[in-house]
Amino acid sequence: MRNTTNAFAALTIILCSWGIARGQAQELLPAPNQIEQLSSPNSATLQKQSDLIDEVLEPELIFSLFESQSKIVRTKAPVFRIAITNPSIVEVNEFSPTELEVIGSQIGQTTMTLWFNNPDGTVSTLRYLIIVQQEDDRADLEFGKLQARINELFPYSRVQLFPIADKLIIRGQARDAKEAAEILAVVGEQTVNQNGNLTNGGAVNVGSVARLPNAEDLQTTSLINLLEVPGEQQVMLKVRVAELSREAARELGMDFSVVEDSFSIAHTIMGGAGNLSAILDGGDVELFIRAFSSNGTAKILAEPTLMTLSGQSASFIAGGEFAVPTAVGVGGIGAVSTSFRGFGTQVSFTPTVTDKDMIRLSVAPSVSSVNQNLSVDGVPGLDIRGAVTTVDLREGQWLAIAGLIQDEQEASRSRFPLLGDIPYVGAAFGSQTTRRIETELVILVSPELVHPMERDQVPLYLPGMEVTDPTDKEFFLHQQIEGLPGYDFRSTVWPTYRHQIHHQNFEQVRLKREARKCRGQYQESEGYYVHGPAGFSD
């Protein structure tokens, strides 16, 4: 009972003391209406302040410190007085009138005032707002400045920086792949590793970017890129190479030979200089006239399609290769190595999505064919139509990146001297040829942003899957070289594969079968009529 009484008495004393202290504090604090009055003083009060107060000094500079760290301050004029508002936050050690140490004791903010003796006998005052923060807070502050700088440089992107230990995580959305690479370059320029070297080699592709004042404090050893580029990044390129070539040629010439018992003379024109020979012999007379006209047309149409990711290169070739022997010498001994040269339809390109639907293409399409007329030492040459260029296109647009209109005309005449120059008769002693070739060529490209197909979007049958081997009856009796679709002769693989396709696409197959069944039955239904009560059926 006695202990209970003592505890009650102690509690009463504490409550009374707390009430008295609270009342005194409330007396010290001005009332809300008094604050409004103090914020708008009258002219007499302002005049009183002007007469008594020369100036009110506010903090002029910020002095940053880290907890349990210090900075040495050397002054040009001697300091004769130092005032710290909260000594528990900052501690000052004076080594001399011109040298002192400022130590961050604990996290917080306070003010420090220094009084200086000037050489002319006057006194100067300097006030600092001292901020003591943790080591992690410093990194967050500097990376926050860098993040704001990046978002200012790239207004169409949103970037966030998260320093974790010695790593820096970069996340957010970039406008396109090119801008994402530039953001990484800027971050690599501004951050340094523990050895003081630039993490990205200092290569920046966006012009000169000034480093932050405290960039040396941004210490990272690796960058983790989590930037995302919105939109489709798979690019499909369509290329069309169309060429039309027309050729017309005419030739006129005459070959003859006269053979007697004791005399022979012959004249032959084979596209070159005329040859005249005479032999005494017995025989007959032969005459051959060559006169012809030829016309030819050639058309090439190639439409390759290729797909790759933005920023990645891809190549495509459909054609063949032929061997090209090359003589090499090894240790003074001759040898022959063989390399292969390709021909056909070739496409190589590198797309870069620079905007939502703007694509930059570095493309090199070509179509080549073997030409035996250009052969050297038995190695054939190539006729090539191609182009190498870089263009900007929006999705679905077509652009003719190359074109050619060529008109070639050739004419030649060969004749026997003197005899070939005789009017009318000279045609028997010569040959003449004319040839004209017209060529038109155009190369078109078109990019598209694509995404993978869903399972139900895949075509039911691919090209060639409906071509089957004919049966003996179809081949020998009906003279067919292709069998009925779906009934492959002597095939053990095709029925199983076809069953798998039908099983995977059962719903599509069922709908097609129902559609075929309805085509033959809808006319038959016209002969029937429906009777019964009006309304919806069950």
UniProtKB/TrEMBL annotation:
One of its GO terms (cellular component) is type II protein secretion system complex. GO terms for biological process: protein secretion. Belongs to the bacterial secretin family. InterPro entries: Bact_Secretion_Sys_Channel, GspD/PilQ, T2SS-T3SS_pil_N, T2SS/T3SS_dom. It comes from the Bacteria. Residues 64-130 form the Pilus formation protein N-terminal domain. This is Putative type II secretion system protein D. Residues 292-450 form the Type II/III secretion system secretin-like domain. The gene is gspD.
